[in-house]
Amino acid sequence: MKVLVTGANGFLGFYLCKKLLDIGHEVVATSRGNCRLPFNGTIGFSYLPLDLASEDQSSTIIRQVSPDYIIHAAAMGKPDECEEKKEVEEIKFKDEKSLKTKKSPTKMEINLLRQKWLDKKFK
Prior knowledge:
Blueprint: E1 2-6, H1 11-22, E2 26-31, E3 45-49, H2 55-65, E4 69-72, H3 80-84, H4 86-101, E5 108-111, H5 115-121
Parallel strand pairs: 1-2, 1-4, 2-3, 4-5
């Protein structure tokens, strides 16, 4: 199974990639900037830089990778900035919509949102 993981350079993304590789899945890790993960050279692992604020880049990568599953683990390192800078919050929800609406054979998309966001957005 091929899994695309966004936010792979982060804490949660690292452990998701590690576990998925350990159980034999193919992992395509994405995050902003260069890969900081120690899995380069590991069979079944590849990395593509991705800025989720770029809808064109997101759709290109999804078409190119054609993953079975997408795990959206991208998050702000400083979540309070979402409260202070409303444009950051809008990008986050635009990113999720962008990933969901692209035509691909993706079977399932898993979005990992912080509880603070869920409490705020869905009450």
